[in-house]
Amino acid sequence: MVTRERIGLYPGTFDPLTNGHLDIIKRAVKLVDRLVIGVAINADKGPLFSLEERTEMVRHECAHFAGANGNAVVDVRPFDKLLMHYTEEVGANVIIRGLRAVSDFEYEFQMVGMNRKLNPEIETVFLMAEATHQAIASRLVKEICRLGGNVKPFVSPYVAKLLEARLTGRELSKV
Fold first, then answer.
1. What angle do CA 141, 139, 133 make, to 5 degrees?
2. DSSP string, 53-84
3. Which member of 97, 138, 142, 166 is catalytic?
4. 74, 35 in Cβ contact below 8 A?
5. What are the counts of helices (DSSP H) followed by strands (DSSP E) for the chain?
6. Contact (CB, 8 A) for 9 and 38
7. What is the three-class DSSP state of 169?
8. Which helix (H) or strand (E) holds 37?
9. Do 65 and 27 form a contact (C-beta atoms < 8 A)?
10. What is the CATH number of domain 7-131?
């Protein structure tokens, strides 16, 4: 009997990548054989970092997950198309989504309904963020940093340096 490779897609803007995102990734790699982390363009959100910078940020922070302790192969890729088209393109049979609060569920519920109309063969799996990460939102992390607050409880040290450099005008090459 041939077993089909379980490929999951975890899409997001990741502007910036937070500890909440990393928590979802850490748990998602246990559920699939290959995890594609799709870094979305999403110009509507007005990202602080370019698509290339966000993709590199995710690659840097997720390198240690790849294949460690029997975890999935991790592949970080940018994308700029309809989520279901991208899911089909990478051969994923499941979309991984993180939930923080009830307000997230309402939006995600609508998204799942639309996605199922587009391709009923692709499932969506929701992972609840750990309690310590439920309040973390990229938008709030950027605001805290912009106003001079400490973002280190919400992002990795590497991402904190990138954020501080971007928002204070220091060169990223010195990070």
1. 55
2. HHHHHHHHHHGGGTTGGGPPEEEEEEE-S-HH
3. 138
4. yes
5. 6, 5
6. yes
7. coil
8. strand 34-40
9. no
10. 3.40.50.620
How would you write the pLDDT of the chain (175 residues) with one tens digit per residue? 667 899 999 999 999 999 999 999 999 999 999 999 999 997 777 899 999 999 999 999 998 876 655 678 999 999 999 999 999 999 999 999 998 877 778 888 899 999 999 999 999 999 988 888 878 889 999 999 999 999 999 999 999 999 999 988 765 554 4
Q: For residue 82, what are the CA distances in angstroms to 49, 62, 65?
A: 21, 24, 27
Which tokens go with 7? 């490929």
Is-catalytic flag, 45?
A: yes
Q: Verify cis geometry, omega within 30 degrees of 0, for the bond prior to 153.
A: no
Q: Out of 100, 116, 146, 152, which one is annotated catalytic?
A: 100
Give yes or no: 26 in active site. no
Backbone angles phi, psi at 160, to 5 degrees: -60, -40
pTM for the model: 0.90
Tell me whether residue 60 is one of the annotated catalytic residues. Answer: no
Q: Specify whether 100 is catalytic.
A: yes
Domain chopping of the chain, boundaries:
7-131
pLDDT value, residue 70: 62
